[in-house]
Specification:
This protein is an alpha+beta fold. It has helices at about 1-20, 25-30, 35-40, 65-70, 75-85; strands at about 45-50, 55-60, 90-95. A three-stranded mixed β-sheet has the order 1-2-3. Strand 1 and strand 2 form a beta hairpin. The longest helix is centred in the first third of the chain and has 17 residues, at about 1-20. The protein is globular and about 40 Å long. The chain starts with a helix and ends with a strand.
Length: about 100
């Protein structure tokens, strides 16, 4: 069954790439593996939102968390590079949770 779905996934990735949109499978993998990929201080304080080009947008609960998680940015980028390859994710943008 998996083999039947692979060509469809590749086609969607191509379409998304042509439209300048992030690859849905990559975003799903990041979300599913977040706790293992992120490590300290990200785990329990953040969640990945979207991939914009090579920038991963990560949400934290409050503005005070932004500076805290920034200390772990280089470690997170290293982990993402090791998992997904060089140049796939090159920057992290941290945003605070929107109320409402």
């Amino acid at each position: 069954m998996s083999k039947d779905l692979e060509p469809i996934a590749e086609t969607f990735d191509d379409v998304f790439a042509r439209l300048g949109l992030p690859k849905p499978q990559l975003q799903a993998e990041i979300a599913a593996e977040w706790d293992e990929l992120a490590g300290r201080p990200w785990v329990g304080r953040s969640r990945p939102l979207v991939l914009r080009g090579a920038t991963l947008v990560v949400e934290v609960a409050s503005p005070s968390m932004v500076s805290l998680v920034r200390y772990g940015e280089s470690g997170l980028l290293k982990s993402l590079r090791e998992r997904f390859g060089e140049g796939v994710i090159t920057a992290i943008e941290v945003v605070t949770r929107r109320l409402g």
